[in-house]
TrEMBL record:
This is Tyrosinase. GO terms for cellular component: melanosome membrane. The keyword DNA-binding does not apply. It comes from the Eukaryota. Residues 287-313 are annotated as: Disordered. Keywords: Copper, Glycoprotein, Melanin biosynthesis, Membrane, Metal-binding, Monooxygenase, Oxidoreductase, Signal, Transmembrane, Transmembrane helix. Its EC number is 1.14.18.1. It is found in: Melanosome membrane. Pfam families: Tyrosinase. GO terms for molecular function: identical protein binding; metal ion binding; tyrosinase activity.
């Protein structure tokens, strides 16, 4: 029965967003630098016959970059994805996907016209069956191959500029682990030389939008492989936690009874194998991670370096971070002061917002606290706690957006580290997404957080009640003011009439109190809001 179910799921898999589309990982596509697959609905590239999209040249941002990466033409990720493709599908309206075969986030229906908002919930608020279903979905993703995407096992030059494609299959969960690795890996400069001060997903303005897209894609992929269109990622609210509350066999795996660095054999995650954790080995070989197994998940929560991360984040840390009015500042990297992004990411002190890379706060604190696979940037997504953690980080980003209501222009348009300007495409996603497109409230992207939802008013009377109560309290004053105003008005009217009778006319030197109609039409009024 299980084998039948898996086979059925393989049949219903549909395209989703990820790394290299399988249909474009071939000599013809790489040499022509074109990735415009046909849409299954009408067989035309990008669904052009159905007005879903068309094959277009990629428009790259020309905005200047920051000084952190002093090279040009040495990394396949520069001006993504132009090294591999310079023509892709540009979708119309609410259509999305590498062939324009999907709906944009927040839309559904045959023509992608139906708006939808789904709710992400606290993992501890899930019922036992909901929690077990989530764990089963994770395990399914780890054991089912991606039908639509492959990963690159060599650089473009190692592929002989496209004439010798180097790609391989990968399971759905590890596809996302690999994407996180690829975005954050070092630049290979040849010989044994690498450049480490580069990251397309961290340490710069794109940190929050990049992980927002990452979770949305991951969430949609789970919906696809399970057929559960209502699935949403749960979050772990770690504020004021005294220890790792999800680190037990009921949730994300407890501690091994004899080896504190491993997971309990009673957890389904104890059998998982990690990938992309040996960055120094890849660098020395001038190679990419090929997604081969590298051992079990390692985790030893709380036994980390206390001088760097003395505790888990507190509610006060989060509230101070939310009070910061600047999204980004200064060099726009991990040295930025008074930056909401840098403080939430964890490179600035959560009590002063002053940069201190020697300490790890908020987001970074959780990674370091886990003291294992999750504590090394490139391979951190191997631990499934990653998605719970980043869902909550995204909710803090959402709170900041709702509190400060920034214009899109608040997100830096230029001089950010490579890949992080507003109009840069995010590495390594195909279809293409710009950083600025996800600097917006989550409800516009089709999801919300349970603890951020405002309770709906039960009726129109509920809406009016507070105003009616205020009116009752000030009603005597309103009546008194009306009576007093009537008396004053009557007295003034009497005085004016008496003066008119006495003078019997108006001197030419005296200007009228009322403006003539033709003059009135020439006056404009301004209201200051």
């Amino acid at each position: 029965m299980l084998l039948f179910a898996l086979a059925f799921l393989l049949v219903i898999l549909q395209p989703s967003a990820g790394q290299f589309p399988r249909v474009c990982a071939n000599v013809q596509s790489l040499l022509s630098k074109e990735c415009c697959p046909p849409w299954d609905g009408d067989g035309s590239p990008c669904g052009e016959l159905s007005s879903r999209g068309s094959c277009q040249n990629i428009l790259l941002s020309q905005a200047p970059l920051g000084p952190q990466f002093p090279f040009s033409g040495v990394d396949d990720r520069e001006d993504w994805p132009s090294v591999f493709y310079n023509r892709t599908c540009r979708c119309e309206g609410n259509f999305m996907g590498f062939s324009c075969g999907e709906c944009k986030f927040g839309f559904s229906g045959l023509n992608c016209t139906e708006r939808q908002v789904k709710t992400r919930r606290n993992i501890f608020q899930l019922t036992a069956s909901e929690k077990n279903k989530f764990l089963a979905y994770l395990n399914l993703a780890k054991n089912i191959p991606s039908q639509d995407y492959v990963i690159a096992t060599g650089t473009y030059s190692q592929m002989n500029n496209g004439s010798n494609p180097m790609f391989r299959d990968i399971n759905v969960y590890d596809l996302f682990v690999w994407m996180h690795y690829y975005a954050s890996r070092d630049t290979l400069l040849g010989g044994s030389n690498v450049w480490r001060d580069i990251d397309f997903a961290h340490e710069a303005p794109g940190f929050l939008p990049w992980h927002r897209v990452f979770l949305l894609i991951w969430e949609r992929q789970i919906q696809r492989i399970t057929g559960d269109e209502n699935f949403t990622i749960p979050y772990w609210d770690w504020r004021d936690a005294e220890d790792c509350e999800v680190c037990n066999d009921e949730y994300m795996g407890g501690r091994h009874p004899t080896n504190p660095n491993l997971l309990s054999p009673a957890s389904i995650f104890s059998s998982w194998q990690v990938i992309c954790t040996r960055s120094e080995e890849y660098n020395s070989q001038q190679a990419l991670c090929s997604a081969t197994s590298e051992g079990p998940i390692r985790r030893n929560p709380g036994n980390n370096d206390k001088s760097r991360t003395p505790r888990l984040p507190s509610s006060a840390d989060v509230e101070f971070c939310l009070s910061l009015t600047q999204y980004e500042s200064g060099p726009m990297d991990k040295m930025a002061n008074y930056s909401f992004r840098n403080t939430l990411e964890g490179f600035a002190d959560p009590q002063t917002a002053i940069s201190n890379p020697a300490q790890s706060g908020l987001h970074n604190a959780l990674h370091i606290y886990m003291n294992g696979s999750m504590s090394q940037v490139q391979g951190s997504a191997n631990d499934p706690i990653f998605v719970l953690h980043h869902a909550f980080v995204d909710s803090i980003f959402e709170r900041w957006l709702r509190r400060h209501r920034p214009m899109l222009e608040v997100y830096p348009a230029a001089n950010a580290p490579i890949g992080h300007n507003r109009e840069n495409y995010m590495v390594p996603f195909i279809p293409l997404y710009r950083n600025g497109e996800f600097f917006k409230p989550s409800r516009e992207l089709g999801y919300d957080y349970e603890y951020l939802q405002e309770p709906a008013l039960q009726s129109f009377q509920d809406f009016l009640t507070p105003y009616l109560q205020q009116a009752r309290q000030i009603w005597p004053w309103l009546v008194g003011a009306a009576v007093f105003g009537g008396i004053v008005s009557a007295v003034l009217t009497g005085l004016i009439r008496a003066c008119r009778k006495k003078k019997g006319g108006t001197s030419s030197e005296i200007q009228p109190l009322l403006i003539e109609s033709e003059d009135y039409n020439n006056i404009s009024y301004q209201s200051n809001f």
